[in-house]
Amino acid sequence: MNEETINQSIHRIKHLKKGDLFLRAGKPCIEIGMLEKGVMRGFVYDNCGNEITTHFYQERNMIIGSYIPKTNTVIYVEALEDCQISVADYSQVMENVNKDREITEIITNQFQKLNDQVQARLVALLDLSSVEKYELFLKEYPNLLNRVPHYYIANFLGITPTQLSRARKQFINKCR
Question: With the C-alpha atoms ordered 74, 59, 123, 136, is the resulting torsion angle positive or negative?
Answer without folding.
Answer: negative
